[in-house]
Amino acid sequence: MDVGDALPPERTLAPEFGVARMTLRRAIEEVVREGRLKRKHGAGTFVAGPKIAQGLAVTSFSEDMRQRGNVPSSRTLDAGELTASPKLAKRLEISSGELVMRVVRLRLADDAPMAVETLHVPARVVPELEGEALDDASFYELLHERYGIDLAGGVQTIEATVTDERESEILEVPLHSPAFLFERVSRARDGQVVEFVRSVYRGDRYQFRVELQPARPARTDDHPAGSA
Amino acid sequence: MDVGDALPPERTLAPEFGVARMTLRRAIEEVVREGRLKRKHGAGTFVAGPKIAQGLAVTSFSEDMRQRGNVPSSRTLDAGELTASPKLAKRLEISSGELVMRVVRLRLADDAPMAVETLHVPARVVPELEGEALDDASFYELLHERYGIDLAGGVQTIEATVTDERESEILEVPLHSPAFLFERVSRARDGQVVEFVRSVYRGDRYQFRVELQPARPARTDDHPAGSA
DNA sequence: CAGTGGTCTAGACCACGCC
DNA sequence: GCGTGGTCTAGACCACTGG
Question: Name one GO molecular function term (chains A, B) (predicted).
Fold first, then answer.
């Protein structure tokens, strides 16, 4: 299966997998959205170039880096507990003054600084957790395995910013270098806020690439099916 | 239909529109992706808050601003033809030295500067076009109506940057203010490159908001359907 | 034209939320 | 339980690409 190769037709593949064609199509669509296959109406389905476009399919840092072809690593710079300020409490949807676990990590790609990440988690969500376990581990895996918590979703904002003194030093870039600021709030399946993460990414090393679809297909006219 | 209201169940709606439930679902899914409806498994489908999340569903500037609740406008700062530098030629996939139409526009939201956009179009794609028609018009509509060209897609990169002197002046921000840099290459249906656009957005006024899905649904186990 | 992906149907069953 | 969305099926027809 090399880049550019065509997949067997859907009508052939579906029975081979023992599923209906519609079902196969939905599966293929998922892969197409990931950018690893491309369809051509009337022609076929083809293997796409490796990193055609990740868009903003947000995953963990490690996953993201791997998809970009870099080797991710991580170093914990600071870890400890603090009492939530009113502002932080609001983000985490807890009471002001509650205990919060805070971990600051330097994220590296191919051993070079890529981002500084400050993670806040309500202490009662992760009892007895120390900073240790996080040094090169995935926080999400840890949540799942040790606490049985699965994330159900979240909201992330992306802003353009510049590095301050501390960030510049950690990221090894000049003061006021361009950077991305990500702020993410994630929730568990029960709706409870599990984390608030603030990440500053080096603007010279990180960029998005988004594939655009035709803004609006403009539907030829849509079927005359609707009688009303 | 206010925010938070539930839609009638799919099984009721589908026959009302004279379509099969699966078809209705696909239509609803589209709206959900636009962020205007939300589904809750086992509960219903609900009208979402107005600007819940556009993610990076990229549209035109005007469309984007409207969705954000701002009034878009535009002012042409410069327009003319030039011969393509090797670098620009490569982006537009034309020969170095070919004529290129160049338009610089200030994009405003609620009458305040939001972005500077530099548009490059191969001159042979838009014969006899002057900068005039673009002052407050959509370039894409113009392409469609005057030249019969419909965009089929494109690639956009997003970087963090800071404003230079010229941009700072135009955008009315201090020198070296945080900003987003978008670069977009769009193609017509025949694959030909139609435009290369470079946009600098004020970082203090523009931000993304992305809703995150559970990183990987982790499929309970998938049906035992596949016999192979 | 044959072969491909794109869409729709009508109905079944599963999984989840809520009372 | 009951009502909701979520998924699958088997087959039909449409729309596009290519020789």
Answer: DNA binding
